[in-house]
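Lab notes, practical 5.
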Amino acid sequence: MEDYQIYLKNLLEKILKAQQEQKEIENINNTLGSICKELDSFTEKIIKASDNGGELSQQDSDRIKSLNKEFNNNIKKLKKAKTTSDI
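Output from the prediction step:
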């Protein structure tokens, strides 16, 4: 009986850990979605600048670079979280 209780305890701990990891993955995915949405908002400005031979404002360029860095960091977090989320 004691072995069974230990088995159930270990199984519950694994399930709780997996749920926490899934929440972390969900949060990362939400963050990535927000980043992509904001990056998408620059598409029209980029096209206009390209068509007119102009450049984006420094503020827009800096924001895009910042979002790109944040995106890459979140992708790394997502890969790490997905490799550890096995039951």
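Observations recorded by the TA: The radius of gyration is 21 Å. The mean pLDDT is 92.
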